[in-house]
């Protein structure tokens, strides 16, 4: 079946979707195919997706990470925003603008890198007033996660007068939104990146200073290091996470949400028992829906990052999604990628 030049679904029943297949043992192929509504899971809410976005987890799913997606072929996409077509649960009206982030979307449920999704009603949040569907996807799971990291730091007592806040993986999706949000809230942000050539992107988002990723490497050999930063958001995990913990000032804490450099880290107790450092875990996937809705209201209201939203994102087509996911998989992404399916 042909795909229209506008890229829209061709009839009421068919739609375009990204498709990941295992073509040989351990080798995965990504393409755009035409699917039919009856191929979707029998969930209550069918949504016409206008925008999606790319996250690191989508890259893992697209390249065959079985901890994210057990069975292939599969359509990735942990984020989706669009308009309700039908809702058998009666919770949403046809035509209502909504968004979905996390839960099982794009993991083992056909995901948002498609013009249609079908999901349970308790995964769906009405689009908060103040955000467009596109802006909601500039934020997406990355924005939700960054906002939750900032909330955790504030709940732990963080304030702009405490000193600098470190953000690792700063050019990534979560990292770049964390930089913009913390800067908006008056914090001085030290952005750590492996892409010093993107320093201007980070200062444009409000970073106070930009540090080379290698700055943290020498701390690997120390049990505890000179206190340099008051608080931190770590999107990278692995050895970096504990290097950050070693350098936090007395009473500080790190919101840990990611594993871009690795899931394991070795630690000792000194930063915890000598400086009272807090390790604050963040999950945006299984967070209860009412809490997600509260965070969305915040991001649409007092935490709206306005013009930074424009600087953060590049719009791409569904056809470009595989190429850009490959970049994310290599750690080469910068900011956010919004998949425009209008
Ligand atoms: P991105 O791919 O957009 O960003 C990841 C960034 O991490 C890269 O751009 C790079 O930034 C840095 N990075 C990559 N590889 C390495 C490495 N080997 N060592 C150090 N830094 C590296 O990913 P997302 O922003 O979508 O996600 C970031 C992390 O957060 C992921 O691990 C993801 O799984 C996790 N996550 C967790 C969630 C939760 O609920 N807990 C929700 C969403 C994401 P730079 O070059 O600037 O250093």
From TrEMBL:
GO terms for molecular function: acryloyl-CoA reductase (NADH) activity. InterPro entries: Acrylyl-CoA_reductase_AcuI, ADH-like_C, ADH-like_N, ER, GroES-like_sf, NAD(P)-bd_dom_sf, Zn-ADH-like_protein. This is Acryloyl-CoA reductase. Its EC number is 1.3.1.95. SUPFAM superfamilies: GroES-like, NAD(P)-binding Rossmann-fold domains. The lineage of its organism: Bacteria, Pseudomonadati, Pseudomonadota, Gammaproteobacteria, Cellvibrionales. Residues 29-339 form the Enoyl reductase (ER) domain. The keyword NAD does not apply. Keywords: Oxidoreductase. Gene3D superfamilies: Medium-chain alcohol dehydrogenases, catalytic domain (3.90.180.10), NAD(P)-binding Rossmann-like Domain (3.40.50.720). It comes from the Bacteria. NCBIfam families: oxido_YhdH.
